[in-house]
Amino acid sequence: MKKTIILVLVILWTVVAVVPHSDAKGLPSNYVVLKAGGFFPVSGDLGDINADAGFNGEIAIGHKISPGFSVEGGIGYFDTKGTVSIPGASVDEKFEIVPLTVSLRGHVPYGRYEPYGFIGLGVYFVDDKISGSIPSLGVSGSDSDKATSLGFHIGIGGNYTLRNNMFLGIETRYIYLETNTFGVDFRLDGFTLTGNIGYRF
Fold first, then answer.
1. What is the pLDDT of residue 101?
2. Rounded to an integer, what is the distance from CA 81 to the centroid of its chain?
3. Average pLDDT of the residues in 135-164
């Protein structure tokens, strides 16, 4: 993971060095964007509960701080659910996560096209819900636990700005996240893929 972080930082630094020569002219420095798509679990812990892909959404606001850099803050939601079956019983576990994130973006505008890469941190509010049943005994129950965890993300994306300063885009990010619920450490690593619509102002 350290090598990946270093690589992303080098790419962002390179972008800042070269972008002043290719920056888009006349586009506003601020933007607001709505992102919607899916969360795709990849950690071994989520694999152990056979976790499925879930919904992912975010609303974010950003500001260009230099020709090659912008900073973006967002609040979002994503979830994933899995099931563990054992002889005579089954247990469902669902994670619902609300992240507050901040990202540093390096972008290379070319006219109205804007590919970018980013790196950031977030505070993740995790709600872990468990329910289980033993059908043969007619027994069922449920419980939940909450945690607040620090996570890290990297990603890439691209936007196309329309004539009225609206823009459309696509983005993917990888989330590194470990939490602790019910006294157990649990990794919630995964990646998101979203379609985006936003407005520059």
1. 98
2. 17
3. 91
| Domain range for 128 | 29-102+117-200
Q: pLDDT digit string (tens) for 13-68?
A: 444 444 443 345 568 899 999 999 999 999 999 999 999 999 999 999 999 998 88
> Does residue 61 fall inside a structural domain?
yes
CATH code, domain with 53:
2.40.160
Q: What is the pTM of this model?
A: 0.84
Considering the domain boundaries, does residue 82 fall inside one?
yes
114 burial level (CB within 10 Å; 0-12, 13-18, 19+) = buried
Which DSSP string corresponds to the chain?
-HHHHHHHHHHHHHHHHHGGGTPPSS--SEEEEEEEEEEEE-SHHHHHTTPPPEEEEEEEEEEEEETTEEEEEEEEEEEEEEEEEETTEEEEEEEEEEEEEEEEEEE--BTTEEEEEEEEEEEEEEEEEEEEEEGGGTEEEEEEEEEEEEEEEEEEEEEEE-TTSEEEEEEEEEEEEEEEETTEEEE--EEEEEEEEEEE-
* 115 CB-near residues (< 8 Å, 6+ apart): 107, 108, 156, 157, 158
Q: How many domains, the chain? A: 1
